[in-house]
Amino acid sequence: INKSIVSSIQQAGGRAVGISGKDGNLMIAERLTKKKTDPATGETVEIDFGFVGEPVNVRLGMLRAVVGSGAEPSLACGGIAPGGQGVNINGDSATRAVVAALQPLKVIFLTGTGGLLDKHKRLMHSINLASDYEKLMKADWVNGGMRLKLAEIKKLLDALPLTSSVSITTPQGLV
Hints:
The chain is 34% helix and 30% strand. It contains six helices and eight strands; from the N terminus they run H-E-E-E-H-E-E-E-H-E-H-H-E-H. A hairpin with a 6-residue loop joins strand 2 (27-37) and strand 3. It has a four-stranded mixed beta sheet, covered by helices on one side.
């Protein structure tokens, strides 16, 4: 997909360079595992998610070199785990790690829906995570990808100055 994105940017007259996290130039990750307690035995077991990782360090050298050259970086969500194993990283988790390393004042997510949807599937135009996060995470209609996106955006904002903000919009709404 990253190659297709880079190609589309270039065909539209832009300058883009794809950066794969799996080449070790961008993200260092740990393999994702989760501890779970077996309710029947009380024994704690570790579940291994295979070739899935959680970013623990972002190397900004390649990213700065691409931006410094005047090109747009297109980042593939992958990383290198200890031992050199390539791992996939969730896009929201990868974004959080890169944003924490760069410390921007504004982060913009482009999605098909243009934001988070409420329980009636209507677009929520504004959310204050400082006051709304706990309530949203307890809501039964916030599930799956929306729950993960909210959690990652909260972590992302917690790592940034208070003057930072996040917007979620569509590509058309970006203009």
